[in-house]
């Protein structure tokens, strides 16, 4: 019997990736023109996408049993990465944040790699402990202690957005694995209070929250980025100004090719185009969840948790990015998966798709 790769998932992923290449080319054009470096950003994005295709192939070919066997060492690797990036001379300081480890012409973002490494660890842990999780609160607390240690190090970079994504992904997996509702809600409350305290007690995060509530009160200060994004949405109306015709990317909207590329999409392709791109991401995540659900039904627990975690990571980051761009969530530095310029995020997301394709492929063999 011939077992094929999940063509629907792969086509959905490639379609979103193609949109990303087109929009990065459009959003980064003013930056290229200003630096006399034609197509600099889109070429680098293309290089990262090529690397992502290689990673996709590797993760699609490697048996899940190998990742399951290595899930504990991968957690250690995540801890080491998060510690190394904080060491002066190893971690690069950019705009007040120490998030990157230099690797020649490229940089490794520790928090992005940690998302993948922690996911594989959690899938391995939960596949071993899913029965104990239902009756023993300690089985629930152990991964949370490790998550807390990683979160503290990532907050020291600082990278609050990645912590939110990691915490939400972990909580989602624990709930799917069968954590008792009372235990889950109690821990969820504690985590929410902790994240809220972190956000409020640090002045610049409190300022971001106040800006989120009323960005127009500081339209030329802390609310500048959000107000420019909202202007982009207003200018785009239903069908947009046309691809490449946006004004906000011309040094009005900071990070137009990166964190705020969805606002550029809204200005150039309109509400219809923006909703269409977001719908593509939603359908991609739903496809991943379907594959995960099939794995769970066949009691392939490691495969199921890997796929659910991949869907949660891509879905949560997409939701937060769109929420930030539309002013429904406070500003956080998170890219739109497969669409924004950002090499590390693109590489990790491509690896996640490779893992899910492997889950689907092994599921066909199990039937």
Q: Biggest sheet, open or closed, and with what strands and sense?
A: 3 strands, antiparallel
Q: What would you call the structural class?
A: mainly alpha
Sketch the topology as an H/E string, one letter per element.
HHHHEEEHHHHHHHHH
- Give average pLDDT, whole number: 88
Unreliable stretches: none
As an assembly, this protein is single chain
| Distance from first to last alpha carbon | 11 Å
Number of strands: 3
Shape annotation: globular
State the helix count.
Answer: 13
Helix content: over 70%
Q: Which radius of gyration do the C-alpha atoms yield?
A: 20 Å
Approximate strand percentage: under 5%
Spatial ordering of strands, largest sheet? 1-2-3
Description:
By secondary structure, the chain is mostly helical. It has a domain at 70-201. It has 13 helices and three strands. The protein has helices spanning 7-35, 40-61, 64-69, 71-84, 110-133, 137-155, 160-176, 181-201, 203-213, 224-236, 261-297, 301-325, 343-366; strands at 91-94, 97-103, 106-109. Strands 1-2-3 form a three-stranded antiparallel sheet. Helix 1 (7-35) runs antiparallel to helix 11 (261-297).
Compact description:
Helices cover 71% and strands 4% of the residues.
Topology:
Blueprint: H1 7-35, H2 40-61, H3 64-69, H4 71-84, E1 91-94, E2 97-103, E3 106-109, H5 110-133, H6 137-155, H7 160-176, H8 181-201, H9 203-213, H10 224-236, H11 261-297, H12 301-325, H13 343-366
Antiparallel strand pairs: 1-2, 2-3
